[in-house]
Each structure stands twice: as C-alpha cells, then as structure tokens.
C-alpha cells in the first residue's frame, strides 16, 4: 500500500508493507514475463488498471474442497495449443534464460531463472532435478473451491494449461505457497508482489472465478501501492480442444 501526502506542491510517497513501487508503465516486478511462447504468451497488457479490475470480481465464501483431484483438470501439461510441446516445456522456454534442449527444440534440458520472480535469486534448472517448478498462479485447488468445480472439464483443462496462469519459479518457494490465495500467501520478493497479484486478478477475471472477502481486501491492499499496475492479458482460450478429457 502507498500513502500519498502533499506539501509545497509535491507528492511524497511513503511505501508500506507491500514493497511495491509505482511505475508509470504499470510494471513493478523485475521479471514480469514479457516474451510470448508458442502457447500464446502471458506478458501482454490489457491496458486497464489491475486495482480497478478487482471490483469486477464476484465475492463469495470458499466452497468445500470436497471432490478436488488434480485429474479433474486433465493430464498435466497437455499440449492444448497443438504446437507439439507440452505446456511445461513451453513455459520453461518462455521464462528461462540460456535454454538448452535435451531433444530437438521442445524438451528443455537446462536453463536459468535469472532471477526467480518469487525470491529474486538466480535458480538453475536441470531436467530431472526439482529446483524449478511451474506454478499455477491461481492454484488449481483454490480455483476448485471458487467456481471450477461447477465447470465443464474442458474449461478446467484450459485453466491448468493457460500461460496466463503459469510461471516458472523456485521449487521450494512454490511449495510453501501450496494452494494459497492473496490473503494467505505472497512472494517473499516484495518487488514482485504487484505483478503477482495483478496476475491472479487477471486469471480470476478471465475465468469467472470468485474471491473471498479477505482475498479481495488483500488484493486491494497490495495493488493500492502500485495504482499504475496493468492487468495482464492473453494466454489461451478458456476451453480446451475436444480431444482432451478430464475425470
């Protein structure tokens, strides 16, 4: 959150706990994805303010987790964009630097998160070693409890593989997040929090997922510190091709 005071015609900015800084372009995270992948990319900007978009989200209580299973969102990393590569490799290619392939130009063998957006530390990726995860910015379990349990399986598959909702991050930090929402977990890297929360708002708005009262308040608290933060857009369609199925 940012508090503004005025004196002698000048604005004085007092930065509070979010750690965000105001940027006229709306990008406050040092490593907001700006490239596009074969999956459709996730660094586009809709041009609107993320803070204003929070008001468009429906507020409801969290539904029970009953019935949640990862299989309800289809096979992990399905090639929903039909480019011949799984979604996980698409995101690794998009987010890593110095990428080297194990096989052809699809299976990523190594690379570097330079830096990891959640910790602002460099993290080396080597295939088969779990130092880098692909995070669902809006966790699938969280989505299940806020609308996704009512969806057609095709929409759940689309959410699980949408580049707008995916980010390569430090594995240990990602696992500490679990299925947390904005009210219960934020990246340790305070400079990335505005970008992160804007991403959650964008995904929930795109897919029609609701938020709890505490979650909405937390989103507003973070984004009030960076009122110029843009709402990201893009990604893939909200329904997967008919050939994909989920339980």
Q: Can you give a write-up of this model?
A:
The strands form 4 sheets. The protein has a 3-stranded antiparallel beta sheet, with helices on one face. The chain has a two-stranded antiparallel ribbon with strand order 1-2. Strands 3-9 form a two-stranded antiparallel sheet. The longest helix is centred in the C-terminal third of the chain and has 15 residues, at about 195-205. The relative contact order is 0.25. The chain is of the alpha+beta class. It is about 25% helix and about 20% strand. Mean pLDDT is about 85; it is low at about 1-45.
Mean pLDDT: 85
Helix fraction bin: 10-25%
| Poorly predicted ranges | 1-47
Largest sheet: 3 strands, antiparallel
Order of helices and strands: EEEHHEEEEHHEHHHE
C-alpha termini separation: 42 Å
Helix tally? 7
How many β-strand runs? 9
Principal-axes geometry comes out as globular
How large a portion of the residues is in β-strands, by DSSP E? 15-25%
Q: Which strand order does the major sheet show? A: 4-5-6
What's the Cα radius of gyration?
A: 18 Å
Structural class given helices, strands, pairing?
alpha+beta
